[in-house]
Amino acid sequence: MSEVNVLKASIEPLVRMLAEKDVKVSFSRETTQPKTEFHKRGGITIKLPMISSKTSEQELSVLQGVVDHEVGHAIFSTDLPTLTIPNELDRFLLNVVEDARMEREMMTAFKGCRHNFRIVHRFLFDKKWVKEVYDSAKEDTRSLIIDTLIPGLRAMNGMEDCQEVVNAHAEMKAICKIVAENFGDDPISKLTSLQDAYEFSQKLKKLFHLDDAGAAPETSATGEGEKGESSEGGEMVPIASDGDSKEDSKDAPKESTESKSKDKEDDKGEESKSDESDGDKSEEKDEKKDSEGEGESASGEDKKDTAKAKSKPKTTKERTKEIEEIAEGEFSPSASLSEETLEKSLKRLEHKISKLVEEMMESDNYVVPTTDFDRIDYARASSSHTLSTSIIDEGIDGVTNAVQKKLERAIAARSMAVWTPGHRSGKLHAASLSRVLLNDSRVFRRKEEGESKDVSVSLLIDCSGSMSGAKIKLAAQAGYVFLQVLTRMGIKCEAIGFTTLRGDLSGGDWGDYSRVEPLYIPIFKSFNDKLDYNVKQRLVSVASDENGVLRNNVDGESVQIAANRLLSQPTKGKILIVLSDGEPEAHGNWSAQASHLRATVNEVSRKVKVIGIGVLSSAVKRYYPKSVVINDIGKLPTTVVKELYGLFLNP
């Protein structure tokens, strides 16, 4: 079974369990950068990219670390909406500190996170990232400081992978040394809340004079910045907030982007003039200094040489000295850190994650826009007592007992004790004594007890429109018979269905997606439910289409979901029985749906025994290597159980 599918299926319940609060996990192809949203009305949404089924093991490891990171924010950064962040610089620095603090908390609470974070750090802080950081620092050494703090605080926090990056570069070591001299070797360990992280980020800003020479424009108390962006609730860069606010509408980002673009155009001329003026003054100052040092007049040749000297990259010693001067307040920058510099520092890391996600999506042949509207919950029980007798009970009395007898034989056969020869310890096996002449000590036998009921069974019933009438009635009857037999035998079992809901997830363009309808997985009986009257009524409801749920069917994803639920069971053996007319058919790309079903059955079959039961149709043979067709409920003991017998013997 693909680790990708297991990860996707387990993320939401895992997050809810870890966070101990209502957390929604959203998968979408529109999301390439994972983020956590804290809503004004309460509640948290973790937005994740749609994970491709072709994700490699290495890529999946990175994504697991990214998911752990977002879960950490959902658990430990919950005070975010109460903070008001004045400007982009403060927002950036808070994010840097809070990320390090939160990861420390996660590693303390959940030991396995350390391994996942280490993989993410190695992926992010590679040689390419270091080169981009140093290229950016050519214009302003302070950009090297803010970039270094990202792995640097983690390195001081004991993360070996980040320590390797920092220790390999003298300037980065110098920055961390200055932090340690002022706040201790591991300042993150002293932070216990988001408020602490914010206060420490302000101390770092002051230490390195990051807001000198005209800080970024401050945000007003109402949360509206100079460019009309909302930061109410204390939004951090990778952690979005205000998921319920009006600014979250689809049109808002476009308006904001246009406004920014217009502002940049209007200010372009003035910025250019200012840059030119600063540049002229700087050159005059340098030329005068050179002239005084050498005792010569500044000729055209000298100016040319000075320009060349200025273009040379700073040496490690020069940049390290400049860093020390900045921290000591002896360096006076000509301009404040620009929002563009801050954005570049953040985007360097965001881009790596986004690129990874985009490459995965491009390689995926089965494309789904989002899983946000897929629904898995209990089917609505029928309100009619008459229907239960006519649809479920009719003709199954003798069938249930016959099926039970045949399956009990398979269980009994597995339970029989078997003596196996060829062991080096146990009871002496007379027939193997001749091996002693060949210096072979395997002359003993052992008694091995069969594990009779160490198996779980899942029934997956096609509830699509093509199954209406006689097909869905037969499927519901067969499902109920199996549930009765398995329950009597003490075998864990569940029964779920699959169809679709009304809706179009594509935005009107079906050609881009394999399916564009939300999935609906009705639960008739879960593994932990008792087989009671409600289970029967739920099956009656779908068999009679009393609630009008019989729509379309996306078989591949539904088989994946059923297999994931089955794999969560602790039993050694796992059997998936699919009752269907065999043809995937939902709005979208039918060819992709059919191919995905075949691929999914092959993938699932590695860890789960799968059998397709064709209900009044032989189409299942095209998709399920092990299959059988049933045309009459009376044939269930002879046709179907014959195939199941082997699965129970060797689950």
Description:
There is one protein chain. This protein has 651 residues and is of the alpha/beta class. The chain is built from 20 helices and 13 strands. The protein has a seven-stranded mixed beta sheet, with helices on both faces. A three-stranded mixed beta sheet has the order 1-3-2, with helices on one face. The chain has a three-stranded antiparallel beta sheet with strand order 5-7-6, with no helix packed on it. Helix 6 runs antiparallel to helix 7. The two termini are 15 Å apart. 39% of the residues are buried.
Q: Which features characterize this protein?
A:
651 residues, 12% strand, 20 helices, alpha/beta
Envelope shape:
elongated
- Helix vs. strand class: alpha/beta
Largest sheet: 7 strands, mixed
**Helix count?**
20
Low-confidence stretches: 214-310
Q: How much of the sequence is in beta strands?
A: 5-15%
Q: State the distance separating the first and last CA atoms.
A: 15 Å
Rg (CA only):
33 Å
Q: In total, how many beta strands?
A: 13
Spatial order of the strands forming the largest sheet: 4-10-9-8-11-12-13
Tell me roughly what share of residues is in helical segments. Answer: 40-55%
Can you give the mean pLDDT? 78
